[in-house]
Every structure is written in structure tokens, then in C-alpha cells.
Amino acid sequence: MSRTFIFILIGCLLAIQTKAQMTNEGQPHSWSLKKSRPAIDYYLMPKFDLEKQKKVDALNDATGMKPWQFGYEHTVNYGLNNSGTWTTLENGDRIWQIEFESRGALTMNLVFDDYQLPAGATVYLYNPKTKEVQGAYTSQNNNADRMLGTTLVKGDNIVVEYYEPKAVQGTGALNISMVVHGYRSLKGYPMEKAIKGLNDGGACNIDVACPLGLGWQDQINSVAIIIVGGSGNCTGALINNTSNDGTPYFLTANHCGTSGLGAWVFRFNWDSPVPVCAQNGNSQDPGGPYNEVNGAVLRANNSGSDFALMELNSAPTGNIYYAGWDRSTTPATEVTGIHHPRGDVKKICREEDPVTALNWSGAAVWEVADWEQGVTEPGSSGSPLFNQNQLIIGQLYGGGAACNGTNDNGLEDNYGRLDVSWNGASASERLKDWLDPGNTNVLTHSGYNPNGPGIALDAGVAQISGIEENYCNVDSFIPEISIRNYGSDTITTVDIIYDVDGVAYPTYSWTGTLLPNSMATVVLPTVTASAGAHIFNAKTITPNGALDSNVVNDARSVPFFITLGGQSVAYSLAFDCFGSETSWSISDSASGIVLYSGGPYSNNFSSLDTFKEQFCLADGCYRYTIYDNYGDGLDGTSSFCGRSGDYWIADAVGNELVKMTAPSGNFGDSAVHYFCLPLVINGQTNVNSLNELNVYPNPTEGMVSIDFALKESQDVQLELYTITGQLLEQISLGNSIAERLELDLKQYNAGMYFIKLRVGDQTYAKKIIKH
């Protein structure tokens, strides 16, 4: 496959308006005029090739990797200065009107490429036949890029009416760049017969008001349908940050688009009041006014995990929720998706088996092998995937899942991984700067309800910390539990029950003062477990000595693994320019079980990225495999950034177990290395030849001393390497038993280096930091 280079220029982001929603009140000023109104300037949109559009849509719908198209875009250029009809009122105020017709349209909507209203001015949209009204749009919808996308008006006629008070006459700007003919309904109405074949599935979808949605109302309220660029739709969700301050960050898929966001419309709470639950039937449009926000600015995006994080131009009002998240690398034991398929009202789906981490179509994803209830479809792109703790772990990238009557087709879906999206080369390519502004470094974070709790007595476990994913030669730890008051009553006592794999520990009774919507950290007694895989579970019960009014948020769980009788192994992987091509695994060479894996990673064309990790491996033999899906390994000599990568694994005393051997890093599409612990050389277990190796001062400003003492005289060689494995200096000492050397690092840049002492066929390594 060929590489695709995407360069995104993000300009200075100006101050965001405090509100960017329709007022959903009033009516067009012209409707109150007693005198006869003049004929409105009228434009009939030309016909378009619907059959050709159907073929394009069918191709896009097959993968779900583009926004679901519901409308045809007519490019126009009509504004206050070149078209429309002006009417001056008796008091000097003015009204500007223009009408569009696109025959046969189910819906019509507009995109303004220049929108800047003065105080007191309004814009209304209405259908002159049905009198349906949407608006008013006001100066509170002004934004930095002066764009605005409108909501949809049913039918094939739409009138735009701009009202301008005399005091601000001539100061407004309004220009229409797009008139959208809706040929597939975004509102759940029956399709035109001519195009019903494009959207005749979906009977296996489950409305969020069905029993499957019970206990998920907060997460449901975080999800919104997006009108993308006027004519397409995706899905996304509000996501909380560690400040819990209601900053309207919105997570969706990168492939939904990242330009022209000022014209995007985000509709919340679009749920059918009469649910249809995986059966033939029609969900209902709850009707307007809709809870919509107009416009957003891009904060971060990356194709390596197909995420885009936006900040909405205003915080939505009403029943909304900022979802929590989990950036750990541990696969969820079960998952739930909430989404808007094919422009329909909100749906929910559930998979009760663990997800799998893999690379799919150039991105790091969690694979949902086969939904057990419900499904996703085109238009669900960007929708959140929640784990068993109701936390977001990714957003929908694509896949083959779809309905087959009232059943799904048994195919998979793939969600860009939030743990991969967390890190990147800069703030514009990663989530952590935005979702963790205080740099708390937590792996999980709970959601936030800006409307406050709706239940009186409601305690729960917000997150579990103090537990590592892997322990090396450690069989005990001290868990820390964050309990949260989700209710409106102050909590002074709560019991915490906890266990490992169902084996319970004594109940812990907490006392204190926990105000509504606040959290407290509880340090539990030490927990001990045997070697192997385990699950730690914690649950709150009996707040204030009474029954909890909402048990859904009471419990959380965390998996962990203990290795005893092993040793810590250091792994380093220095990337070439294309981290998105690289993945790797370490498996048990006897059983083939994959113990550790990673990738793909983010591309970085400007600076070196190095992945470092510590693994715990028991005594035995292992297989390390590294993959490159382009086929040139870590060779960067032929690319425009001219930087090759490297990899190496060392044991606890610095012995090299694995090292890159391919010239220029070009190992093709994969390379395999076998190694054993303890290190074996020439068929014999390695016996340490070294009595002493000291490197000091460390860190150093320049001069560094190396002292070593051997058990017996042997040939010795000293080498200095960069972090990427480039050999800088090499000194042969001949036959030695002890010596003191000095190296001058003043000529080298600040950073990390490796000093390696080769004694016969053994290698010892020390890291050194140069300031």
C-alpha cells in the first residue's frame, strides 16, 4: 500500500462565543406585517443525477469509512449584497428574504460561508408551504471562522429571512454558499421509493429507550448526531476532562472530516419516544425544537487511531452528559456502542465478549468481533465505544457489521483506540493535553453531569487506582478507590466490598463528608494474590446506612497480572518517520501465547520518537516479532525525513537479548528474534564475568568516569551509543581485569546515551544522561 501524507495547518484559535445555539423561540418578523408582502426573490435548484449519487453512496456505505450522505450539495453564492428581497419597515428596520426550491427534496438545509450578525439581528428558516420554522439564529451564533450550518427544514422549499434593526443597519454579513437537497431522510421519515434500496435495512437496530439502554442514560445523553458539512452525518460524544469544568470537548472519527467545522451541526437528545427494539417498525422523530449546537474548532486529530477531538462553539444545554474515559491498554471484557446509524434516531448495541487489539486499515483499533445485540451501520462513524465500566475506550472507524433483517450479519466493527490516541508528537495530535489539563496521569476518569444529580442517595466507585497492569516479583499491592457522590444528599458513611477473583476481603467502612458531585480517595488494606491473571473488584453499598437508589454505578473492576520468579526486561523501539506502519509482539516460544504487544503508532516527520517499556518475564524462552506493513522495516533513508529506526531488548543487568541486525533498519515486512532467560551463550547459562561496573557522575555535564573490575582477565571493549543505537566511540582495552576510564561527552548534545562494556562474548550496558 502507498503512504498517504496528511498535513494539517491549525491557525490561531480565537475566543469562543458563550452560546452558539438557536433560541428556538419567536417567528419571522414578516409574519406579523399587516401590509401585503412583496414577492420574494426565488431560485429553483437544478436537477441532479440521483442514480449516479446512489452508486456513490452504495460504495461509501459498504465500508462506513465516510460520513453517511443524506443530501446533494448545490453550490451557490447568494447574499445580502447580490440577491434577495429587501423590505424597509415603518420604523426603519429592514427585512431581507430569499427562497429556494429543490423539487422532490425530503429536507433542505443551508451553509453560510459568511455569517456575522450584529446585536438584535435574527435569521429564521421556514417552509412557506408547511409553515415549519427553525430559528432564531442570532449574534450568539457568530464564530471565529464566520461559518454556520443550519438545521434541516422538512419539504422541498425553504425561505431565509434576515431581520436587521435600524440601529445596526448595514453592519451584518450573510452569504449562502450551499443549498442541500435531502434525498435520504435524516429524521426517520419514510424514504422516497426511488432510493429506498439505499436504506431498507436496519431492523436489527435497538433504540436507546429499549430495555438494553437501562442504566445507560448518562452515556446516552453524551452522544450526538453530526450534520457534517451540510450533507453528511456521523456520530460523536461529549467527553469529560480531569478538571470536570464542562469544557465542551467532543470526540468523533478523523475520517468524518476536520475542516469547515463552523458549518457543522451537533444534535443532542435525538431519541425516539416510542422505542423499536430489533424488530420491524418505525422509530419516531421526537420533533423540534432540537437541542443543537452550531460549529466547533479542531483541537487534535490523528489518523493513526482515527480520532478527532473538537471543542464545540458552546456547551449544549438540557439533558446532556460528559462521558468518562479509560486509556488503559487492557481489553474491555464487554462493550456497548451508542450511535446514530444512517441518519436515524439514537441506537444502542452490546457485545458481551472481550475486544481484541489489532491494526486495521492503517489504524490501531479495538475489534468487536460480532455484536450480540444490535449493530452499527454507515452514519455510526465516530460513535463512542464504552467498556464494562461505562467509560469511552474508542470511536468507530469502520467494519463490515450491518443488519440482516432483524439479525446482524455476524461481521466485525473496529474502533480507534483511545489509549493510542492519548499520546502523540504534539498537542494537536493527542488527547492528553485536552482531557488531562492538570497532568494527573490517571488511566481512567469518570463522567460529569453539569445538571447535577437527579437521585437523592447515590454513591459509586468512580475509578480504581494503585493497581498496576503487571507486577514483577511482587505479589501484593495497596488499592486506592475513588468513591463519588452521584446523588443530591450529602453522604457521611458508605461501605466498600472488594475481592480478587471473587474471594472477598473484609468490608471496609468509610466515614467522612462527601458532598454532591464530589469524590474522595479511599486507601484500602494490602491485597495479596498468587502468580497469574486476576481481576480486582470493588463496590459501594449502603450509603448513609440505606439502600443505594442507583446500583448501576456502584461497581468497577481492574485486571492485573503477577509474574513471580522472573526478571524485568527493558524494551526500546526507536521509530522511523512512519510509526503507523510498525507493530510488534513478544510471545512464549513454546505455547505461542502473546504476552505483550504494541502498535501501530503515530507518524512523526519532525523529531525522533522512542517507545520504552519494562516487561516482566519468567525464566524461559521467547519470540520477539516486529512488523512493518509497508515492507521496508524501519528504513527511513529513502523517505523525506531521512531517519531510520532501531530496536533492542536487554535483561536486568544490561545484557542484550535482542537487537536490530538489518542494514539501515530494512528488515522487510517482519523480523523474528528468539531469546531466553536467563541469557544463554554457546549452550551454557551465562555466568556473570563482572564484579563491578560504575559509571559516574550520572547525570553529567560532560566528563564521565567508568570503573570496572572483572573476575578474571579478558579482552575488553568500551562503546558509546546514542539512544537510537548509533555507535559514537569505540575503545579497545585489550586484555584487562580492572581499569578506570574517562569519556568526554561535551561535544555531544544533551540527552540519553548508552555505555556498553563488552567482556569476551558478554555485554554489559549502562544508561547515562548528558545535561
Descriptive keywords:
Jelly Rolls, seven-stranded antiparallel sheet, single chain, 4% helix, mainly beta, 4 helices, eight-stranded antiparallel sheet, Thrombin, subunit H, 771 residues, Immunoglobulin-like, 56 strands
Proportion of residues in extended strands: 35-45%
- Regions with little confidence, pLDDT below 50 for 5+ residues: 1-19, 187-201, 680-687
**Mass-distribution shape:** globular
Number of strands: 56
**What is the correct CATH architecture of the largest domain?**
Beta Barrel
CATH topology of the largest domain: Thrombin, subunit H
Number of discrete helical segments:
4
| CATH homologous superfamily heading of the largest domain | Trypsin-like serine proteases
Roughly how many Å apart are the termini? 42 Å
Count of individual domains: 5
Rounded Rg: 31 Å
Structural class: mainly beta
Q: Mean pLDDT, rounded to whole units?
A: 85
Work out the oligomeric state of the chains in this entry: single chain
Q: Regarding CATH, which class of the largest domain?
A: Mainly Beta
Specify the biggest β-sheet: 8 strands, antiparallel
Relative helix content: under 10%
Structural summary, described in words:
The protein is mostly beta strands and 771 residues long. The protein has five domains: 29-195, Spermadhesin, CUB domain (Jelly Rolls); 202-435, Trypsin-like serine proteases (Thrombin, subunit H, Beta Barrel), CATH 2.40.10.10; 459-562, Immunoglobulins (Immunoglobulin-like, Sandwich); 566-685, Lipoxygenase-1 (Sandwich), CATH 2.60.60; 690-770, Immunoglobulin-like, CATH 2.60.40. It is 4% helix and 44% strand. It has four helices and 56 strands. Strands 2, 13, 14, 15, 16, 17, 18 and 19 form an eight-stranded antiparallel β-sheet that branches. The two termini are 42 Å apart.
